[in-house]
Amino acid sequence: MKASWDIFCSVVDNYGDIGVTWRLARQLVAEHQQTVRLWVDDLQAFVPLCPEADASAAQQVQQGVEVRQWPVQWQSVDVADVVVEAFACKLPEGYLQAMKARPRPALWINLEYLSAEDWVSGCHGLPSMRADGLKRMFFFPGFGQGTGGLLREADLLARWRAFEQDPQARLAFLQGLGVFPKSNARLVSLFAYENSGLASWLDAMAAGSVPTHLLVPQGRIMGDLLRWLEVNELVPGQVEQRGALSIQALPFVRQQDYDYLLWSCDFNAVRGEDSFVRAQWAGRPLLWHIYEQEEDAHWVKLNAFLALYVKGLSAPAARAFTGLWHAWNAGSDMAQSWNLLLEHWPEITAHAEQWCLEQSLQADLAQALVLFYRNWI
Ligand code: TRH
Questions:
Q1: Residues flanking ligand 1, CB < 6 Å
Q2: pTM of the prediction?
Q3: pLDDT tens digits, residue range 148-157?
Q4: Per residue in 4-39, is it b (16+ CB within 10 Å) or e — as a string?
Q5: Average pLDDT over residues 42-71
């Protein structure tokens, strides 16, 4: 059933808010034939993910999604059948008034941040009544039964498999980025916030017995990287060699290409929310730099995910994996935990694929949202 959707995205910082909403919007159009308007208050953050986009356009269509500049002065528009308020971004007052006046109520969904905490399944899908008579539903992404699931395109795993089974496709993708790794090199991607633990991790990789090729898209970790390298600049494409470690800066690639980067690597360091999920769909070991929250709330989230993720690992591998994640997120010494993780590499690699396959058994988030709407009307 075709419905109209308004997705509201306020860019708090970085690329996560737009990353999630852009991905959801595309999928609703491509797989569920929905009519989607994506309202974004900062289109500058959208362009790196979708380089064809025009940051100054009030209105544009990209991949079937009508992308609208969310104006400071709201101008009235028709209310859609489904209204998605991403990450409690606060709908414009004028839009709320129009929602109240709509003869057939719109389904108002607050799409929440991803968390593996237990309480999520208890709160997913709950309504919240407002004094003005409007009702808002809480929709929680998550990792299991009773949650809204994870964003995953219907053909994602098939495309990932095909890529895995085609070494030429991997080489061609890497060569397109100017990456020519040694045939026995371990390929690692690094997308992270500033991190004082980086130097010790780089030291460990440089001193390693296996060559490592580290790929670093332009971003916030660059300052720490340059300091360790003792260079002023690392332009995209440039490679610096230190011991067994080759470090190469990459351009920030379009969102669809970021998957290929993750699929091409043996290990992915990711951050935030969307890259974290994509690294899980890559079926490879990952390292999550979680987004820091007030009063260390992010540690609870980090440990909730870890508790779930390491369940299928042997106790020593689980300890090694947890140790590395804790060190990275504390910004502390990484050398010992990296070397320990390497001792369990085959087990942790097999587990990453298993995790990916298990997670893919649950309905994806876009599908779950469409179903939620269907059940609601
Ligand atoms: O950018 P992030 O750190 O985003 C966020 C925001 O800080 C947000 O406010 C916070 O609430 C949230 O994290 C938890 O990380 P994230 O979510 O991984 O988003 C990055 C997006 O950028 C993701 O869609 C993948 C994409 N990307 C590319 O398209 N190309 C690239 O080269 C890279 C490295 C990433």
A1: 12-17, 19, 49, 191, 217, 252-255, 258, 271-276, 291
A2: 0.97
A3: 999 999 999 9
A4: bbbbbbbbeebbbbbbbbbbbbbbbbbebebbbbbb
A5: 98
Atom of ligand 1 nearest to the CA of 189: 34
Are residues 139 and 166 located together in one domain of the fold? no
Residue whose CA lies nearest to ligand 1 atom number 13:
272
Same-domain check for residues 122 and 47? yes
Centre of ligand 1 from the C-alpha of residue 15, in Å: 4
- Structural domain harbouring 280: 156-359
- Considering the domain architecture, whether residues 330 and 369 belong to the same structural domain is answered as no
Residues 195 and 276 both lie in one domain: yes
How confident is the model over 56-83, as a mean pLDDT? 97
Please say if 17 is a catalytic residue.
yes
Q: Are residues 135 and 160 in the same domain?
A: no
Based on the residue annotation, tell me whether 273 is a catalytic residue of this protein.
yes
- CA 252–ligand 1 middle distance (angstroms): 11
Q: Which of 85, 112, 259, 273 is catalytic?
A: 273
